[in-house]
Design goal:
Helix content is about 35%, strand content about 35%. With about 110 residues, it is α+β, with helices and mostly antiparallel strands. It has one domain: Cysteine protease Prp (Alpha-Beta Plaits, 2-Layer Sandwich). It has a 5-stranded mixed sheet with strand order 3-4-2-1-5, covered by helices on one side. Helix 1 (about 25-50) runs antiparallel to helix 2. The longest helix is centred in the middle third of the chain and has 23 residues, at about 25-50. The chain is elongated and about 45 Å long. The model has no long low-confidence stretch (mean pLDDT about 90).
Length: about 110
């Protein structure tokens, strides 16, 4: 099971994703893992490349096997996090036995 928690603020945003969706003998679990990983790595790559100096501060950025944790503050990053959230929620809606997504809007 992949567990995703995302928090969206006015300038500070975070995502924590843990787990795997691999089920022996199931292509479905592998597809869920691949899709979730692609979205997470795209988000991390966008932040790491900071295309227009949008990042004010990286509070945490840790990427490992079965774990991704990003906590950043910056201008105009919310749409990027929202795009990632929508993609992850679509996967979780189609495969609820493999992935759970929780999100919150926070005031800062």
């Amino acid at each position: 099971m992949i567990d995703v928690t995302m928090k969206l603020g006015s300038e500070r945003h975070s995502i924590n994703m843990t787990g795997h969706a691999y089920v022996p003998g199931s292509d479905e679990g592998q597809a869920v893992c691949a899709g979730a990983s692609a979205i997470a790595y795209a988000l991390a790559g966008y932040i790491a490349n900071d295309p227009e100096w949008l990042i004010i501060r990286v509070h945490d950025m840790d990427i490992g096997s079965g774990n991704l944790s990003i906590d950043v503050s910056g201008r105009n990053l919310r749409p990027v996090f929202e795009m990632a959230l929508i993609g992850l929620m679509q996967i979780a809606e189609k495969y609820p036995e493999h992935m759970k997504v929780r999100h919150a809007n926070e005031s800062e």
